[in-house]
Amino acid sequence: MLAVKNISRALTSMGFGVLRFDFTGLGESEGDFEDTNFSGNVDDLVAASDYLAQHHKAPSLLVGHSLGGAAVIFAAEEIESVRAIATVGAPSNPQHVQHLLQSSIDEIKANGKASVNLSGRTFTIKKQFLDDLETKSLPQVAKELRKPILIMHSPQDEIVSIKNAEEIYHAAHHPKSFVSLDGADHLLMDKRDSLYVGQVIAGWSSRYIEQPQPEKIKSDHHVVADLPAENGFTTQMKVGSHYMIADEPEAVGGNNFGPTPYELVSAGLAACTAMTIQMYAKRKGWEIKELEVHTSYDKQHAQDCDDCENDTAKIDTFKREIRMQADLDEKQRNRILQIADKCPVHRTLHSDTQVLTTLVE
């Protein structure tokens, strides 16, 4: 589901290593949902944790959406490494699913299974799933868990009511937190909602778990771009000792999770211009209280070019506006304009440059 992907990407952008998986037969997971029960889904979480502990690093944070929120609370009781839990739109008791299946419960009990529609999708539910739910008491587990928990829920959730969040909150011990996802639907269909959820979880959990550090990318270069095939245009970047994301707008097939390559170039020009101006002003003893450099990139028809008779002749153009609050006379302001053109990035853009590329296996 797109919401889960967005939450995961928001977490990874802040340095978390994330294992994302769906219950059997849901999302991108193989198998048939009808062959599972709730306990089996919890067991899958524990098995995934064991795998991470053996091959990578034991998980310290569990995040669950909807029925997965209930599952992570049960699983956290069995996973010693978990230091914090976050739930999103979770039912206070897995029996809440029965409320969604009222029209099919009799059919399930009579025939052993039935097809039901949840949020526009059709699933087959077996009697063993309902029987398993009746044995679970999530409030009791939450009460005994004694681990930090973040409960996120929308007051407008029409699938799992906000009352469920209240029941989980009252059952849990401190430290516990609640964040209202006002205006969001149960599936977090608006990308802004799911990205917000990921960002909040990352910030909240930093109080309870070791602050994750981005994976160190070994390279002799100052900048590294990492783009696996499945990520579309969403590119993980190491810029000096800092980590960020570059992307393309949704209109051209990107996710708009970060600035475009040309926006990054424009940002370099703007930052370098501001630094150069302030450095010169301080050396001269001129006070510039506020300084903003606004830049944008486009291709425009060149005013002076060798091929001006060709209507398609265009040139890379950076527009730059300098806005400042400073008590400077006209001569000083003209000097500031001259200094702006002397910033190193500006000079690089105007100089002959070369890019030497090698392919390394």
From TrEMBL:
GO MF assignments: hydrolase activity
Pfam families assigned to the protein according to its UniProt record, in alphabetical order: Hydrolase_4, OsmC
Keyword tags: Hydrolase
Domain spans labelled Serine aminopeptidase S33: 5-96
UniProt xrefs under InterPro entries: AB_hydrolase_fold, Hydrolase_4, KH_dom-like_a/b, OsmC/Ohr_fam, OsmC/Ohrsf
Coiled-coil intervals: none
PANTHER family: OSMC-LIKE PROTEIN, PROTEIN INVOLVED IN RIMO-MEDIATED BETA-METHYLTHIOLATION OF RIBOSOMAL PROTEIN S12 YCAO
Listed name of the protein: Bifunctional alpha/beta hydrolase/OsmC family protein
Organism: Gangjinia marincola
